[in-house]
Specification:
By secondary structure, the protein is an alpha+beta fold. The chain has a single domain, classed as Lipocalin, CATH 2.40.128.280. It is built from two helices and nine strands; from the N terminus they run ααβββββββββ. The longest helix is centred in the N-terminal third of the chain and has 18 residues. It starts with a helix and ends with a strand. The relative contact order is 0.18. This is Lipocalin family protein.
Length: 153
Protein backbone atom coordinates (compact mmCIF):
# COMPACT_ATOMS: atom_id res chain seq x y z
CA UNK A 1 0.00 0.00 0.00
CA UNK A 2 2.90 2.36 0.81
CA UNK A 3 4.34 1.79 -2.68
CA UNK A 4 1.03 2.61 -4.37
CA UNK A 5 0.64 5.76 -2.28
CA UNK A 6 4.21 6.82 -3.06
CA UNK A 7 3.70 6.17 -6.79
CA UNK A 8 0.43 8.11 -6.71
CA UNK A 9 2.13 11.09 -5.00
CA UNK A 10 4.99 11.00 -7.52
CA UNK A 11 2.56 10.80 -10.44
CA UNK A 12 0.45 13.71 -9.19
CA UNK A 13 3.52 15.82 -8.37
CA UNK A 14 5.12 15.03 -11.74
CA UNK A 15 1.88 15.83 -13.55
CA UNK A 16 1.56 19.15 -11.74
CA UNK A 17 5.04 20.21 -12.79
CA UNK A 18 4.66 19.14 -16.40
CA UNK A 19 1.08 20.27 -16.93
CA UNK A 20 1.57 23.83 -15.71
CA UNK A 21 3.70 26.08 -17.85
CA UNK A 22 4.04 29.83 -18.19
CA UNK A 23 4.26 29.45 -21.97
CA UNK A 24 1.56 27.72 -23.96
CA UNK A 25 3.61 25.51 -26.27
CA UNK A 26 0.45 24.39 -28.07
CA UNK A 27 -0.48 27.93 -29.16
CA UNK A 28 -0.02 28.67 -32.84
CA UNK A 29 2.24 31.63 -33.72
CA UNK A 30 -0.88 33.65 -34.55
CA UNK A 31 -2.41 32.88 -31.14
CA UNK A 32 0.87 33.66 -29.37
CA UNK A 33 1.22 37.08 -31.05
CA UNK A 34 -2.45 38.10 -30.68
CA UNK A 35 -3.13 40.38 -27.75
CA UNK A 36 -1.92 43.62 -26.21
CA UNK A 37 1.81 44.17 -25.76
CA UNK A 38 3.24 46.97 -23.60
CA UNK A 39 6.75 48.16 -24.58
CA UNK A 40 9.37 47.98 -21.85
CA UNK A 41 12.54 48.95 -23.72
CA UNK A 42 13.88 50.31 -27.00
CA UNK A 43 17.45 49.95 -28.26
CA UNK A 44 18.58 51.56 -31.52
CA UNK A 45 22.07 51.33 -33.03
CA UNK A 46 23.18 52.99 -36.27
CA UNK A 47 26.34 51.82 -38.01
CA UNK A 48 28.26 53.39 -40.88
CA UNK A 49 30.60 51.02 -42.69
CA UNK A 50 30.54 48.66 -39.70
CA UNK A 51 31.34 51.31 -37.07
CA UNK A 52 28.78 52.46 -34.50
CA UNK A 53 27.83 56.11 -35.12
CA UNK A 54 24.87 56.45 -32.73
CA UNK A 55 23.04 54.49 -30.08
CA UNK A 56 19.84 55.21 -28.15
CA UNK A 57 18.35 53.23 -25.26
CA UNK A 58 14.95 53.98 -23.75
CA UNK A 59 13.09 52.36 -20.89
CA UNK A 60 9.35 52.95 -21.04
CA UNK A 61 7.29 54.09 -18.06
CA UNK A 62 3.97 55.84 -17.45
CA UNK A 63 5.29 58.99 -19.20
CA UNK A 64 6.56 57.20 -22.30
CA UNK A 65 4.25 54.46 -23.56
CA UNK A 66 4.24 52.28 -26.66
CA UNK A 67 1.56 49.65 -27.05
CA UNK A 68 1.01 47.13 -29.83
CA UNK A 69 -2.41 45.48 -30.08
CA UNK A 70 -2.44 42.52 -32.47
CA UNK A 71 -5.98 41.39 -33.21
CA UNK A 72 -6.92 37.90 -34.32
CA UNK A 73 -8.44 39.29 -37.54
CA UNK A 74 -4.96 40.31 -38.79
CA UNK A 75 -5.21 44.02 -37.91
CA UNK A 76 -3.10 45.95 -35.44
CA UNK A 77 -3.11 49.23 -33.53
CA UNK A 78 0.21 50.87 -32.64
CA UNK A 79 -0.29 53.51 -29.93
CA UNK A 80 2.39 55.80 -28.48
CA UNK A 81 2.60 58.60 -25.91
CA UNK A 82 5.95 60.27 -25.27
CA UNK A 83 7.38 63.37 -23.64
CA UNK A 84 4.95 63.36 -20.69
CA UNK A 85 2.04 63.23 -23.11
CA UNK A 86 3.20 66.03 -25.41
CA UNK A 87 3.48 63.62 -28.34
CA UNK A 88 0.74 61.07 -28.83
CA UNK A 89 -0.51 59.09 -31.77
CA UNK A 90 -2.05 55.95 -33.15
CA UNK A 91 -1.16 53.99 -36.25
CA UNK A 92 -3.22 51.17 -37.70
CA UNK A 93 -2.76 48.53 -40.32
CA UNK A 94 -2.62 44.83 -41.00
CA UNK A 95 -0.07 42.21 -40.06
CA UNK A 96 0.88 38.71 -41.05
CA UNK A 97 3.44 36.20 -39.87
CA UNK A 98 6.09 34.73 -42.13
CA UNK A 99 8.26 32.23 -40.31
CA UNK A 100 10.08 34.21 -37.63
CA UNK A 101 8.93 37.61 -38.92
CA UNK A 102 5.96 39.88 -38.36
CA UNK A 103 5.09 41.85 -41.49
CA UNK A 104 3.38 45.11 -40.53
CA UNK A 105 1.55 47.10 -43.21
CA UNK A 106 0.95 50.58 -41.80
CA UNK A 107 -1.93 52.47 -43.43
CA UNK A 108 -1.14 56.07 -44.40
CA UNK A 109 -3.43 59.06 -44.77
CA UNK A 110 -3.89 58.91 -48.54
CA UNK A 111 -4.05 55.19 -49.35
CA UNK A 112 -0.29 54.92 -48.86
CA UNK A 113 1.25 51.95 -47.09
CA UNK A 114 4.52 51.49 -45.26
CA UNK A 115 5.69 47.89 -44.91
CA UNK A 116 7.92 46.99 -41.97
CA UNK A 117 9.37 43.51 -41.41
CA UNK A 118 10.61 42.63 -37.94
CA UNK A 119 12.08 39.39 -36.66
CA UNK A 120 10.36 38.28 -33.47
CA UNK A 121 10.58 35.85 -30.59
CA UNK A 122 8.19 35.23 -27.71
CA UNK A 123 9.50 33.81 -24.46
CA UNK A 124 8.02 33.88 -20.98
CA UNK A 125 5.42 36.53 -21.81
CA UNK A 126 7.97 38.81 -23.50
CA UNK A 127 7.83 39.70 -27.19
CA UNK A 128 11.16 40.81 -28.66
CA UNK A 129 11.23 42.41 -32.12
CA UNK A 130 14.30 43.27 -34.16
CA UNK A 131 14.21 45.47 -37.25
CA UNK A 132 17.47 45.35 -39.21
CA UNK A 133 17.78 47.72 -42.19
CA UNK A 134 20.73 48.25 -44.51
CA UNK A 135 21.06 51.18 -46.92
CA UNK A 136 23.85 52.53 -49.12
CA UNK A 137 24.21 56.29 -49.24
CA UNK A 138 27.04 58.55 -50.41
CA UNK A 139 29.54 55.72 -50.77
CA UNK A 140 28.88 54.38 -47.27
CA UNK A 141 26.81 51.47 -46.05
CA UNK A 142 24.47 52.26 -43.18
CA UNK A 143 22.84 49.67 -40.97
CA UNK A 144 20.15 50.43 -38.39
CA UNK A 145 19.14 47.83 -35.81
CA UNK A 146 16.10 48.52 -33.61
CA UNK A 147 15.26 46.11 -30.80
CA UNK A 148 12.01 46.43 -28.84
CA UNK A 149 10.93 44.36 -25.84
CA UNK A 150 7.24 44.13 -24.89
CA UNK A 151 5.41 42.45 -22.04
CA UNK A 152 2.02 40.90 -22.67
CA UNK A 153 -0.74 42.79 -20.85
Amino acid sequence: MKKISLLLVLFITGFAFTACSSDDDSASPEEAVAGVWDAKSYHFIRYRDGETVSEVKTVYDENNVVEMRFREDGTFVHYFREGNGTEEGTYTGTYSLDGGEIILVYKGDSDSEDVVRVAYTISGGTLTTVEDEVDAEGGSVYREVTTMKYDKM
